[in-house]
């Protein structure tokens, strides 16, 4: 972590907090990008050994930002700030911690680390305690679907749309989702999946920072874009 004990008069003197929002964020992206099950390339799939090493690192960063942390029954990592006596709906921020095989280090990780960095700035400047709305960072355990060929296990569980039948889907070795969860001390039952679900009434909005996986912003020399539409996939086996 970038030291902040030298005084806030030096930290973010220009109002941009580059020490955290740029320098430390880049260091953390590189650190997470080295946590891999592959040798010489980045591969971190659902419930793999590397995913648990990454979990420990992400939890430490969340705690550094002043967040209360836990891991749910689908392996999603949560870091939350809860204002006293707040009844407001939560702002959720996050992305996925799993990767494809031979992945880039920004895919997913950027959204997790940017969110943590933003909240850390609020903590070190004394503004986190002034928030009136709960804010929660979520590192979703599975988006890519590499291991079980079933995408969005993590976020679908949070949304409450993951069917119980998913527990019986197998990977190439014949291990089911249920067995993989139980091997790693998760309950892996329909009731446990129900515990992961967030009620829509408790969530006000969700924001995700993601790198553009295309040429448009780069060609226009724009540093940032706001997504208005997204591609959807339907896969059929005939």
* Superfamily (CATH H level) name of the domain at 18-144 and 201-207: Zn peptidases
- Kindly provide the name of the CATH class of the domain at 18-144 and 201-207: Alpha Beta
- The SSE string, one letter per element, is HHEEEHEHHHEH
| Helix vs. strand class | alpha/beta
Q: What is the molecular shape?
A: globular
Please tally the helical runs, counting DSSP H or I stretches of 4 or more residues: 7
Instruction: Name the CATH architecture of the domain at 18-144 and 201-207.
Output: 3-Layer(aba) Sandwich
**What percent strand?**
5-15%
Can you give the mean pLDDT? Answer: 93
Task: Describe what this molecule looks like in 3D.
There is one protein chain. It is built from seven helices and five strands, in the order ααβββαβαααβα. With 238 residues, it is an alpha/beta fold. The protein has a domain at 18-144 and 201-207: 3-Layer(aba) Sandwich (Aminopeptidase), CATH 3.40.630. It has a five-stranded mixed β-sheet, with helices on both faces. Helix 1 (18-33) runs antiparallel to helix 3 (109-124). The mean pLDDT is 93. Residues 76-159 form the Peptidase M28 domain. It comes from Aegilops tauschii subsp. strangulata (Goatgrass). Pfam families: Peptidase_M28.
Write the layout of secondary structure elements.
Blueprint: H1 18-33, H2 49-64, E1 68-71, E2 77-81, E3 90-96, H3 109-124, E4 135-140, H4 153-159, H5 177-183, H6 190-196, E5 203-207, H7 216-220
Parallel strand pairs: 3-4, 3-5
Antiparallel strand pairs: 1-2, 2-4
């Amino acid at each position: 972590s970038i030291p902040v004990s030298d005084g806030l008069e030096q930290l973010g003197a220009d109002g941009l907090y580059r020490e955290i929002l740029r320098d430390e964020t880049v260091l953390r992206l590189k650190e997470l990008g080295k946590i891999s099950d592959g040798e010489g390339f980045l591969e971190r799939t659902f419930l793999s050994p590397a995913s648990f090493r990454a979990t420990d690192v992400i939890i430490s960063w969340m705690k550094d930002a002043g967040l209360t942390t836990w891991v749910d029954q689908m392996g999603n990592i949560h870091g939350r700030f809860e204002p006293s006596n707040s009844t407001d709906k939560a702002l959720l921020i996050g992305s996925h911690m799993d990767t494809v095989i031979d992945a880039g280090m920004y895919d997913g990780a950027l959204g997790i680390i940017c969110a943590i960095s933003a909240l850390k700035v609020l903590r070190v400047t004394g503004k986190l305690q002034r928030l009136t709305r709960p804010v929660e960072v979520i590192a979703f355990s599975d988006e890519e679907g590499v291991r079980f060929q079933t995408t969005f296990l993590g976020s679908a569980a949070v949304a409450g749309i993951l069917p119980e039948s998913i527990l019986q889907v197998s990977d190439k070795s014949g291990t089911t989702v249920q067995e993989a969860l139980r091997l790693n001390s998760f309950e892996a039952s329909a009731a446990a999946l129900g515990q992961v679900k967030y009620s829509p009434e408790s969530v006000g909005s969700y924001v995700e920072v993601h790198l553009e996986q295309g040429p448009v912003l780069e060609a226009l020399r724009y540093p940032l874009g706001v997504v208005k539409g997204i591609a959807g996939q339907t896969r059929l086996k005939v």
